[in-house]
Design a protein that fits this description.
The chain is of the alpha/beta class. It is built from 18 helices and eight strands.
Amino acid sequence: MRKLKDRLHDLEGKGIQDEWRKLDGEGGLSTREKLDQLVRRNLKQDGRAPVAGSRPLEPRKPEAMAEPFLVKEFTYSLDGRYGKVRLGDWLFLKTGALAVIAGSDEFAAVDPRRVVFFDSETTGLAGGTGTVPFMLGFGFFAEQAFQVRIFVLLGLEREGEFLDAVARFLKEKEFSAVVTYNGRAFDLPLLETRYVLQRRRSPLQGMPHLDFLFPARTIWRNTFDSRKLGYLGEMLLGLSRDDDVDGSDIPALYFSFLRHQAFSLIDPVVEHNAMDLVGLAAVLLLGVLYLDDHSLTGDGGEIFGLGRVCERAGLLGRAEEFYKIARQVSARSDVGALATRRLSVLLKKKKLYGEALELWQQLAAAHDVQAQRELSVHFEHRQRDFSMALRYVEQAIGEGGLTPSRRREMEKRLQRLQRKIAQLEEKDGLS
């Protein structure tokens, strides 16, 4: 496959993208009118000589031009292994297996085998009615394989037929839930908008929805610098994306395709969409397997993240177990401190103040302001030891690093404790 930047150089895709931005900023034009102007402007440039060494574009077949959309299908073996994940293990997940990682009771009755993975490619990232999802990809588990079906819109004037075909496919498969990556903020609202503009109801509307971006951020926040899906797929699963399309170049490739009517221009985008779907399925499966067997993890930060997932799902007992394990196995002081802090919060909720006290003291010795505050509260209100409470307040103020609001709070606490101590000393002097 030729490098994408070389293809774009041949087609001056960046120029196409710039022209689209200019048109997009002009008021009073519909999406179709803007696209028509874009195509007309760029057709004038067809007389230039091709770049040396460039591959000639394959024109679209006349019979295909009458079709409103193109369908591409990919099949991935269930025996395929991606890092620690075997795709076929998904079929052994029990009903409700996604409820914890989704943090939603809606998934308690969801059969994982009836889940559809969804991702779209669009003419831009701004959203709104001017952004068109020209490629809609769906991944799902069948008995023999993980299948991907991708619908590609061949002309914006045929969007209604395109969306109808997608709706028929989803109705036929009878999926019961949808999984996306950043779909809550982008893919699903945009798809719903397109259906509304066509006076139709989105076939995914109302389904239980797991946007795995948020659990992924929780699990791998303290392990990787990036939580982009492609990066996680490479780091966790070994899915190489060296020749992958850059997301920012996808609109230009689509506009080039509309101009030249050549399928070869969008093949890299189709492959990109398919890899996103199989990568999403595999990374989600890994996260679910982590919850059942933390020995699969490779870092204490991941174990801490599992605790956060369980805590947010209301499973405080499991969260406590993960925090304890993270403290034991992590060689990183930052992860150990995070686990200790969350564990102390859970112990406090259970009113196990003696156990929480030990953790607060460990954290305070490492200059943890929140722990110093907890200790001052504990000694003032539970043990009525105002001198010890004052000691931790003075420690927090003296070490600095307090936010303005926290400093004001601690100074008020300091004054109150000083008054209480003075009152006790005065009472002792009179007795």
